Protein: Citrate synthase
Amino acid sequence: QTDAFTYDPGFTSTASCQSTLTYIDGDQGVLLHRGYPIGELAEQSSFMEVSYLLLNGELPSKQELENFSTTITRHTMVHEQLATFFRGFRRDAHPMAILCGVVGALSAFYHDSTDIHDPAQRVIASHRLIAKMPTIAAMAYKYSVGQPFLYPDNSLSYTGNFLRMTFGVPAEPYIVNPVIEKALDRIFILHADHEQNASTSTVRLAGSSGANPFACIAAGIACLWGPAHGGANEAALNMLREIGTPDRIPEYIARAKDKNDPFRLMGFGHRVYKNYDPRATVMQKTVREVFAELKVTDPLFDVALQLEEIALNDPYFVEKKLFPNVDFYSGVILSAIGFPTSMFTVLFALARTVGWVAQWNEMITDPDQKIGRPRQLYTGPTQRSYVPVTER
Ligand code: SDX
Structure:
């Protein structure tokens, strides 16, 4: 609780935990990380600096940021045996399936950072997860396209390293485009943490049992994959592709309103934001910057803009408080940069790892922490006696 806000007592009964990391006001469209507005962080900070802020609670000095970035950089390589792990997957395996499997296996490679009661091991595990996620994500992409893995180049930035490992090839030098690097770094900032969303709650619940941090993050990745959550960016772009041209938008708006049609506008709506998602605002601005830099004109962006315009002025969506969320525009940008839709949620997981890790550390160091045990409202049969099969 800070003097800037009056803690809403109404949440005390339903809140799953207390946290100092991220504050969301769904009605005002406010998102703060350790008190700093997401718009200011997205415009002025870097993903490494926001990672330090989420983990440590304060913005770093220049030297602290350099030391943190160097520490993370030193953990970017993965155990060489891990590369063989990939070869067990089919080439057409979804990269999220690979990410779930490989991250879950990390505890089998890093036994010296699985003791959750050892502060030093918690720090190393946290740094390893943040550092290795880009390497593993890039390896998942390379494996899917049949290209060789590239080792990290630690002379590059965190995001530049990831771009090179993903799009570089051994046969020629890879030059990081600074505009693309900045745009992707900003997308990572927008996805870093988001209070107690489904995947973060999954990480906390898994961690409350004492499971090692690698297993907890793997659980978060599995939950994020769902199309109602992190899988929405992939689903939103597939929806825009299916709509194809602006003249078909009314057909899909009608479907979204039809109670008998399970179709939902992917990238619209939010459990908490009932006004607008401040991240979507930054995302839409970033689309224009990337498109200008790459000199691309993607008709899907026109469909996205017109879909947003129509939906925002439709009484149904206004009444239901439905508007674009963080996933609506991210796919258009990632597609323009060159990522296939199957990699969109992988990038979400890459960025959200720092939030999951920070939330896990906050949970595991809470002296009052107990194993999570949600209860239920039982609506099944009352007690009854067993009936032998001969009498049924
Ligand atoms: C993320 O929690 C987080 O913080 C998540 C996240 C993060 O950073 O971690 O922000 C990331 O997951 C963003 C959300 C990405 N998901 C999508 O874009 C998928 C499409 N959106 C919907 O599935 C839905 O909006 C949810 C799940 C995101 C939120 O649903 P709610 O708030 O629980 O609302 P609801 O499902 O109860 O729906 C309320 C009404 C319903 O109509 P009624 O039954 O009241 O008549 O709104 C309708 C719904 O039918 N509705 C939609 C809709 N979303 C809700 N109708 C059409 N299209 C939609 N997208």
Remarks:
- The chain has a mean pLDDT of 93.
- The beta strands are 22-25, 30-33, 36-37.
